[in-house]
Amino acid sequence: MIPVIALVGRPNVGKSTMFNRLTRSRDAIVANYAGLTRDRKYGEGKIGDQRFMLVDTGGISGEEEGIDTLMAQQSLQAIDEADVVLFMVSSRDGLTAADHIIAKQLRQRGKKTYLVANKVDGMDPDMAVMPFYELGLGEVFATTATHGRGVKSMMESVLAELPASEEDPAEPEATGIKMAIVGRPNVGKSTLVNRMLGEDRVVVYDLPGTTRDSVYIHYERFDKPYTIIDTAGIRRRKNVSLTVEKFSIVKTLQAIDDANVVILVIDASEGVVEQDLHLMGTIIDAGRALVVALNKWDGLDEGHKQYVKNEIDRRLRFIDFANIHYISALHGTGVGNLYKSIEQAYQSATDKLSTSFLTQVLQDAVAEHQPPMINGRRIKLRYAHAGGSNPPIIVIHGNQTAKVPAHYVRYLEKTFRRALNLRGTPVRIEFKSSDNPFAERKKPKAPVRSQRRAPRKGS
Hints:
Elements: E1 4-9, H1 15-23, E2 41-47, E3 50-56, H2 67-81, E4 84-90, H3 97-109, E5 112-118, H4 125-129, E6 140-142, H5 151-160, E7 177-183, H6 189-197, E8 215-221, E9 224-230, H7 243-258, E10 261-267, H8 274-285, E11 289-295, H9 302-315, E12 323-326, H10 338-350, H11 355-368, E13 373-374, E14 377-378, E15 380-388, E16 393-399, H12 406-420, E17 428-433
Parallel strand pairs: 1-3, 1-4, 4-5, 5-6, 7-9, 7-10, 10-11, 11-12, 16-17
Antiparallel strand pairs: 2-3, 8-9, 13-14, 15-16
InterPro entries: G_ENGA, GTP-bd, GTPase_Der, KH_dom-like, KH_dom-like_a/b, P-loop_NTPase, Small_GTP-bd
Pfam families: KH_dom-like (PF14714), MMR_HSR1 (PF01926)
Binding site for GTP 1: 9-16, 56-60, 118-121
């Protein structure tokens, strides 16, 4: 088993910076902004030969209200599941009342705790850690997470008292199908994540922008592995002002690129809006398989439901390959049906395609509807083969392929999707022109015959 270490403390003491330092990543968003982290975030670290699992948590103070209460609950859950706790405090701020409250919570829970005084750069380490001995938690480690000062020696002391991690080849990290849950703020993404997991794993609050970072969660359903990615909501660019929100959007776009299947959550009470269409375009451009979930469906009257369905038929024709589900993440209605579409989309996106079958489909498509004439010569498409997966890429060879018009490309995409029974994934067509083997061979010039006339008689 790999030991689990939880990072806890007040907001803005450097927990996420320490998380990135120990996991050697940039997975956690870091900014000079209190309360940035809200959900538990897991990552794996390694010091020497010793591996460990690290849990980043939101800041707690003991006087939480509203959403801060939910953040504190996430932190307490991380403490319960951890083997040891790194209690981080800020040397710049000194000892605070909130630090006393957190220390009391840790003593009551009986967890092995190491006190870490962060941000000691520019200070005398001995003087910086002196006030924190008042908490009665033993030795205080002086660190600067941004520069790595004191971090290695601290972790060596922590790991020396933990059992060595055991490699278990029978239990590799299972990721399975990666599913990114994306959508505008406050459409119910985190509620859907918790419903699919069957537990309150991420913070849910009636406030747009509750989720700020992409959270990867590995789990199993019916002995089948999955990875679900909860992401921050994406608003229109003109409404994005905070630097933190810009980082969140970058994390969401990275999650889309990293996922196998993207579940786009739409607020059914508001219908399909321009930002939803923009997100669909982003997902298709990334080549990811797509499942659409219209959330909050239970609370609508029949008239509004019919209006939304009409809007979908009118505005979502360009994603006719994607399955659309009407769900209620809060009550669980229709959520289980998402898995069938997820499996189907993933299978379609990753299936191996036969060259002979693709070529036959191409020949049938050309026989039914020939490519147009270009400069008096007809475009010739000869054969096709697979060029990649997730999304499926079909490479078509022929002559003058650079001049194939867009409408004919769409015709080929629909033909291949129908013939291959692909559902839930876009298809990309790439063309390659056959080289002319005689292009570089120069024709020999014909010999020039002399045109001299024969002399006239008598001249």
